Amino acid sequence: MGRSTRKLNFIIEEDVSRDLESLVPLGQRSKVVNQALRKELELIRRKKVLEKLHATPSSKKRFSNREIVEGLAKDRRSH
Length: 79
Description:
Number of helices: 3
Order of helices and strands: HHH
Number of domains: 1
Number of strands: 0
Helix content: 55-70%
Distance between the termini: 17 Å
C-alpha cells in the first residue's frame, strides 16, 4: 500500500532552490526532499533523546557499551 501524501507550502532559500532544480530532475524532487527531511528529522529525534539522557540523574541504571551498541543497531535496523 502506498504512503499517503500531503501538500505543504513553505519557503526555501534561493540557492537551495536553484540547486534542487538544476541537480534533481522534475518528478524526483519530492522524493529527494522527503528523503532529506527524514534524515534530518531522525537526527533531531536522536539529539533530543541524548539531551534527555544527559538530563537524567546519574543514579539511574547505567548501560554497558555493548548494550548501547546493540540498542543503536536495533534502532538503525528499524528504519
